[in-house]
Amino acid sequence: MLERACIQGAAAGLARRSIPKAHALPPVRLYDKFRVLPHRNIRSATSCHDCVKCWKRPYRGEKLTMKATDSRNLHGHVIRELGKRIVVGDLRPGDVLPREEDLAESMDVSRTALREALKVLSAKGLIESRPRVGTRVRATHFWNQLDADVLSWRCASMPTDDFIEKLVEMREIIEPAAAAAAARRRTAAQLGKVDLAYRKMEAARDSEEWAAADLGFHDAVLQATGNELMISLFSVVESALGMFFVLSAKTAGDFKYSLPRHQKVLEAIRRQQPDVARKAMQSMIEDSLANLRKKRKGTSRKTA
C-alpha cells in the first residue's frame, strides 16, 4: 500500500520530494491485452472492458520498466507505449481501449497522467472518444502520418514494403526538385555545408556513420534551396529518412556504393546546373530503391 501511494503521489505531482530509498519501487511491468483468451475474442469491437486480466499479459513477452517519476514523464511514457501499439498494429482500428480506471491501474499511472496521454494521441488522430462507446482506435487515414512521433513509431519496427514504397515516392516528388532549386539559389556558405556532408560520407568508417552523414547531406541540399517550407518538411520526415538510409546502407554489399551518385549531385549544385542536379538526385533515389528491392527478394527466397 505504501509503494502504491508513493507512485500515485509522484504521478499526480503531489509529492515534491524524492521517494526515500526505503520506499524505492521495483521495476513495474507494463501490460497489454494482445492475446486472445479462451473466454473472449478481445480483438472484436466489443472487447471486454471489465476484464483487466486481458491487459495484464506481458507485452510481446518483454519485461518493460517504468520509473516512479513525475506525472509529465509518466504521461509521456504512456503516449509512447500506446502510440507504438497502435501504429505497429497490436491495437487495430476499431479496437476499444479498457475503461479509464482499468487502463490506468494496469499501466500503474494516475488517471490524470492517462487522460493527458489520451488527449495527445487523440490530437495525433490515433484515437477518438465517443459517449457510450469509449476510446476507440481510429482508421489509419485519420492518423497524422507526418507527425514526428507517428513516423518514428512506424520506423521503430521493421517498416513494411508498402511504407518503403510510399517513402520513396515522397522523396521522388520532393528531392529532385530540391536539388534543382539548390543548384539555382545556393550561396557559397550553403555549398560548403553540402560539400562538408559529402566529405563526412567519404570518411565514414561504418554503415551507421555513413547513414548519419547521408542524412546530413540531404539536409544540406534542402537548406541550400532557401525555401523555408522545404526546410521545415525535412524536420518532419527526418526520422523516416534516417531509417531509410540505415536500411539502405545495411542491405548494400558496400555501404559506400552510392558515393559517386552523391558526388554528381554535389558537382551539379557547385556548377549551378539545375537540370543535371535534378536528374542526378532522381537517379540516386531510384538506385537506392532498386538495391532494397533486390535485397528483399533475396531474403524472401531464402526464407521460402
UniProtKB/TrEMBL annotation:
<dbReference type="Pfam" id="PF07729">
    <property type="entry name" value="FCD"/>
</dbReference>
<dbReference type="InterPro" id="IPR011711">
    <property type="entry name" value="GntR_C"/>
</dbReference>
<dbReference type="InterPro" id="IPR036388">
    <property type="entry name" value="WH-like_DNA-bd_sf"/>
</dbReference>
<keyword id="KW-0805">Transcription regulation</keyword>
<dbReference type="InterPro" id="IPR036390">
    <property type="entry name" value="WH_DNA-bd_sf"/>
</dbReference>
<dbReference type="InterPro" id="IPR000524">
    <property type="entry name" value="Tscrpt_reg_HTH_GntR"/>
</dbReference>
<feature type="domain" description="HTH gntR-type">
    <location>
        <begin position="72"/>
        <end position="140"/>
    </location>
</feature>
<dbReference type="InterPro" id="IPR008920">
    <property type="entry name" value="TF_FadR/GntR_C"/>
</dbReference>
<keyword id="KW-0804">Transcription</keyword>
<dbReference type="Pfam" id="PF00392">
    <property type="entry name" value="GntR"/>
</dbReference>
<protein>
    <submittedName>
        <fullName>FadR/GntR family transcriptional regulator</fullName>
    </submittedName>
</protein>
<keyword id="KW-0238">DNA-binding</keyword>
